[in-house]
Each structure stands twice: as C-alpha cells, then as structure tokens.
Design brief:
321 residues; mainly alpha; DNA polymerase, domain 1; hpI Integrase, Chain A; two-stranded antiparallel sheet; 2 strands; 4% strand
C-alpha cells in the first residue's frame, strides 16, 4: 500500500540520486545527467510557485504544462527551440523520478503518465549485411602482426556485439588459454556497471588465438598498439579512438557504401540475430540493454525485411487481376 509523502517533491532529489547509484548501479556521468535534467524541472516548479508540492500533488495537467515549457524553451547556444530528443531527455529524467516514487511506495503520478515527445521519422540504423561483413573481415593483411590483430578485433566486434569501450577494456586473463576449436564465453562489465556474458564464435576464437600466439609481451591488455613502445611499465592498450580508426580503415579498403563504425558492427550483430528469428528479449540480453525500448529500434529494420520477403515470395502478390 502506498504511503503519503511527507515532504516536498524536490526534497526527494538526493534520495533519488542515491537510489539510482546504489540500487540501479548507474555510472557517475549518468547520475550527473539525471541531476542536471531534473534541475530544469525544479526551476520550472519554482518559477510557477510549485516548489512546495508533494509527489502526490503532481498531476498529469502539470506534467503537460512542463512539456509545453520544454517545447518552448530556447537552446542557449543556437537560440532555437529544444529538439524533440533533447526534450525527451528531460522527460525521461522526470519519469525515472516517478519510478523511484513507485518503487518506494510513495504516492505519486504513475510514470506512464509522462509521455515522450514524438520525433519525426524513425531513427535510422546503419548495419552491414553478411556479404559486406565478409568483405570487411577479409580486408586486413594477415601476413603482418597488425593485420592479425585487426582481424581478431573485427571478428570480436561482430561475434559479440560488444560496445567499443567494452572491447577496449578486455584483458588477456579474461580470455584465458584459448582452445583450437571451441566457442568462448566472457563476462564483461557494461554500462551502469552491469555484468553480462558475451559469446565469441568458434571462428572469432580461432583468430584471437592466432593473434595472441604471435605476442611475446607481458601487457595485460587484450588489444595493444604496436606503433609505440611501452614506457615505465605503461600499458599499450588500444584506445576507443584507435579501434574506431581501425574499423574505418578497413571499411575504406573493402569499398563499403556504409561508413561503418564499431557501433555499426554492434547494429549488424543485433540485426542478424533478429533476422534469424531470435526473440527481442534475448537480443536485449546479448546487447546489455537495460530497457527493452532501446532494443526495439532494430525492429524497424527487421520489419522492413519481413515486408520485402512478403513482397518477393508470397504467392498472393503474383496473382493477376
């Protein structure tokens, strides 16, 4: 049973931030963003002499008035109105606060009453088909140490769907002794310090082994830079920018029409799974998405694929009038 709130809505902000840090496990940057986005809501409350309202006094009409305020607010840099996706960041923060009230059984407006602004058009997802993936994977020069490393990087990105930051942070001891022909499971720490298991395919493991067998250093980083020598025991771990540059290099070499990034390979991984009939919830787990809504962006791609298949193969489209 919900309990009546005992203090003003804005007084709960420190409790909310503690909750998101300890229970939700959000990273420091995410906490700062929530705090910053909610400051705008607090500013609006004060401007309208609503700073003393309790959570149970927040109504759908007040949320609507706040949405109008966001819609008509000007960006300080561009002097133009806030973009829809920016407005949604403020609304998502408010929704998270209401979810906190619900979790703590504090009477308040249901989070579902905070509707997000509709953006024009669907978010475009860039991904590579399997033929393009193959061209990309075959691009590195395997006669060189760098080429073998780069092939292992490309294989790992497509096989696991790892974020580039997650790939960069991998250590050799996480991989362990590699078998010649077996898949590999590795636990990684993703966004929000959330731990999940990723899966390296048999082929990806084979390329990792070829790359690691040619290394004779003691650096713990899984993927290292060969262009500079380590100083005073510093790691030669590749950076996020280095991985991005590596992918772009081979995209150009392969002559692909899509200017792919490491995240494009993540999109390709997810899209391939969905096209093979994998359930969206499972894809969510593979990607480490906290919210299923984040994973649903891929359904725009797969829905179009279904439409194309229906158009090409369904007999009803071939019957003459």
């Amino acid at each position: 049973m919900s309990k009546a709130p005992s203090k003003a809505l804005i007084a709960y902000l420190p409790d909310f931030l503690d909750y998101t840090e300890i229970v939700k496990g959000l990273a420091e940057n995410s906490l700062k963003n929530y705090h910053r986005f909610l400051q705008k809501f607090i500013f609006w409350l004060k401007e309208n002499n609503l700073q003393k309202i309790r959570p149970d006094q927040l109504t759908a009409d007040l949320v609507w008035q706040y949405r109008l305020f966001l819609s008509r607010s000007a960006n300080k840099k561009t002097r133009s109105g806030l973009k829809k996706n920016t407005q949604n960041l403020y609304l998502i923060a408010l929704r998270a606060l209401l979810e906190f009230f619900a979790e703590k059984d504090i009477q308040s407006l249901p989070p579902s009453k905070v509707k997000l602004a509709k953006e024009k058009g669907d978010k475009e997802i860039k991904f590579l088909n399997l033929q393009q993936i193959e061209s990309l994977l075959l691009s590195p020069n395997l006669k060189t140490q760098i080429g073998r490393r780069d092939r292992a990087i490309l294989e790992a990105l497509f096989s696991t769907g790892l974020r580039v930051e997650e790939l960069v942070n991998l250590n050799r001891d996480q991989i362990g002794p590699l078998p010649r022909s077996r898949e590999l499971e590795v636990a990684v720490i993703g966004k929000g310090r959330k731990i999940r298991t990723v899966y390296f395919s048999e082929r990806s493991v084979a390329w990792l082994k070829k790359y690691l067998d040619s290394r004779h250093d003691l650096d713990q980083a899984l993927f290292i830079n060969y262009w500079r020598a380590a100083k005073n025991g510093d790691s030669r771990r590749l950076t996020k920018k280095s991985i991005e540059d590596i992918v772009k290099k081979y995209v150009r070499q392969a002559g692909l029409p899509v200017m792919a990034t490491p995240h494009t390979l993540r999109h390709s991984f997810a899209t391939d799974l969905l096209m093979q009939g994998v359930d969206l919830r499972l894809v969510q787990e593979f990607l480490g998405h906290r919210n299923i809504a984040t994973t649903q962006i891929y359904t725009h791609v797969t829905n179009k694929q279904l439409k194309d298949v229906h158009h090409r193969l369904h007999g009803g489209t071939k019957i003459k009038n």
